């Protein structure tokens, strides 16, 4: 998988140097610095939660964010991963954004469910480009579980004897779901976000598309403005980019392209592949 482009190489190749610079110079990026620690904590909780639900649990010394272990996923592991992502997102919101704790429970739930559908596949693409560089078709379906088009054919087991797994698979193939996953991952790879850009997108997605909830709108506006201001400073002062407007525009476009495939679960339910009480299916019905 080879992606070229002056802007991509410039930002991606200087990310580690920029991170080192941030720790040794007076550039003030408090939100991004807190995000690094909070996302790492959130990620480790998700990784260990998924691993400890398995039967082949490795020794704690053999578990790390860098090495996993990562394993072939299934509908069950994806469902568990989504449950854990929602739970850790609630904690992430409370730790990162003080105003989040004052919201009603319904509003908190609205935020994290919306975040799930915006963030899950974007993060999966970002992490797949790190861990599976040589395999375009291997993608994270949860934090620790991964799938390939071949494995996807085995995931959709009928929920009952009347289930039509073959019909469900044909439906997904007609909708080019696997091609769309590859296209999404390649779009992320072409942009090649550094970790600071990834974290900025995470905040933007956390408060994105919540225009109908009055209590959330002003809170979201504050933190979106804050992270964009720090991203400007990161480009200007850490990366020394003179003209970063185009990069910022590409980042916003990339963010808007990211969508989950929640509409597919309605069809999978009709094929009786996803059971009526499946958590992901019931979640999208709320």
List keywords for this structure.
mainly alpha; single chain; 13 helices; 64% helix; 3 strands; disordered N terminus; 286 residues
Short description:
The protein is mostly helical and 286 residues long.
- Provide the gyration radius in Å: 19 Å
Largest sheet: 3 strands, mixed
Helical content band: 55-70%
Going across the biggest sheet, name each strand in turn: 1-3-2
SS-derived structural category: mainly alpha
| Helical segment count | 13
Span from first to last CA? 39 Å
Fraction of residues in β-strands: under 5%
* Secondary-structure element string: HHHEHHEEHHHHHHHH
Average pLDDT number = 82
Shape: globular
Quaternary structure type: single chain
Any low-confidence stretches, pLDDT <50, length ≥5? 1-10
Number of strands: 3
Structure write-up:
- The chain has about 290 residues and is an all-alpha fold.
- About 65% of the residues lie in helices and about 0% in strands.
- The protein has a three-stranded mixed β-sheet with strand order 1-3-2.
- α4 crosses α5, α5 (about 105-130) crosses α8 (about 175-190) and α9 runs antiparallel to α10 (about 215-240).
- The termini are far apart.
- Residues about 1-10 have low confidence and may be disordered.
